[in-house]
Amino acid sequence: MNRIKKYLMPVIMFIIFESIAITLWLSKQNIFYLFNFSYIGISVSLGVFLFIKEYKYARRIVQLLVGIYMLVYLGLICNENMQIEGFWYYLFTGVFEAATIHYAVAKIFGPLFFGRGWCGYACWTAMVLDFLPYKTPHSPRKKIGWIRYLMFLASLIFVGTLFLCKVRNIEKIMFWAFIIGNCLYYAVGILLAFLFKDNRAFCKYICPVTVFLKPMSYFSIVRIKCDKNKCISCGKCKKVCPMDVDMTDNSRHRKNATECILCLECVKSCPKKAL
């Protein structure tokens, strides 16, 4: 029974994604959605399974499997802008396709179940930034998180202006916006990582997608909790957390509560298995 319970989470993750895949396939009459969400579901489930087996690079495998697929196949080969500008584009056209479905599942409603798991396992920007040397912050958190809201507003104004001005070839502009936007994200992300000695500086201060993710992840069902009876207050979980979350506090108001990316570094570092 314990063995079955141990491997229950990857099965649940697969069932969730497969349910989404089948629902979208049948409702949209497009087999692409069956392939797309089945692939992502299998990748995520594999990562969770490997973590349970204590494989060191379990999360990195998921990041590469999902991140490269979305960046290269969906973005570059299929010409789909999967960044926030692509979401605004499809929203303004009134079409529930591509980026709008992606955002609905991964970044708006999905976080109600798995929080900011997207940031830890699927983001193609973080996929690259996590290869940098500053895996845990080497300096105190900066009070510049307001920049993300400016980025969010700028993306909305950019796409909105294209529609208001009735610009031609808007699809082509969206494609190039995806390429240029990603180049800028990587450049700024790498610069900030070395400037602040923190791989996740971009996620904390710049990324506009977190405007969706943070409020929804506050209500997340999947959360890392601390067993107070086992915890010895050694502080190791706080030291290894890339997002400065206080995992010893089980309340939803804990320090940087909506920043947890479910990377599970705290779980691996806990000497008493209290998390």
Task: Produce the secondary structure layout.
Blueprint: H1 2-6, H2 8-28, H3 31-52, H4 58-77, H5 84-93, H6 98-108, H7 111-114, H8 117-121, H9 124-129, H10 147-164, H11 170-196, H12 201-205, H13 210-217, H14 236-240, H15 265-269
Helix pairs in contact: 2-3, 3-4, 5-6, 5-10
Tell me what the structure shows.
The model has no long low-confidence stretch (mean pLDDT 92). Helix 3 packs antiparallel against helix 4 and helix 5 runs parallel beside helix 10. 63% of the residues lie in helices and 0% in strands. It is mainly alpha-helical. The longest helix is centred in the middle third of the chain and has 27 residues. It has 15 helices and no strands. It has 3 domains: 55 residues; 157 residues, no CATH class; 53 residues, Alpha-Beta Plaits (2-Layer Sandwich), CATH 3.30.70.
In sequence order, what are the helices and strands, one letter per element? HHHHHHHHHHHHHHH
The total strand number stands at 0
Tell me, rounded to a whole number, the average pLDDT.
Answer: 92
The radius of gyration over CA amounts to 19 Å
| Beta-strand percentage range | under 5%
Question: What is the number of domains?
Answer: 3
Oligomeric state of shown chains: single chain
Key terms:
Alpha-Beta Plaits, globular, 275 residues, 0% strand, mainly alpha, 15 helices
Task: Give a brief rundown of this model.
This protein is mostly helical.
